[in-house]
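Memo to structure team: turn this sequence into structure tokens by end of day. - J.P.
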Amino acid sequence: MKAIATANYLLYIMSDTFADFGNIKFGQGYYPKKYGRPFFDNAIEVWNQGPIVPEVYYTYKKYCDKLIKGYDNNMIDEITPETEDILFNIARKYGRFTAGALQNMIYTVGNQWTQVYRLHTEIPLIAIQYYFAKAEALILAKTVSLLKDHSINNSNAVQICRFMLI
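Reply from structure team:
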């Protein structure tokens, strides 16, 4: 599947809201863990703004910060039930964040986006998967620690875990 099809589907399910295509990078992190194969076939590259899928960037850059109305009906049929599952969860979990907030989440000093990769080079899928697995483990460890310290209750812990899991 092409990344542009997943971006188009985000437009479909997030109609009349800003669909931030940075969200599809989260799919590339979570999908292989759940389904054992890449979310899409396109490369994610290191750019100054963070990780970018060039095909998606060049397709939608003309809209800048404007609301994109409509989507390509022909691409909707390319979406599998598994892809739809991940995209709905990504939209639910990350759809409320701005592009800047998403960038802050995934483009921090010391992570795989900034370590050894030169600008406009592909980030290996294994590095993306490792980052998301590590992030989940850190959140779970912190949640357990907060439960032990009685800083949060079980209900809060469940909410944190539900938010974290796709």
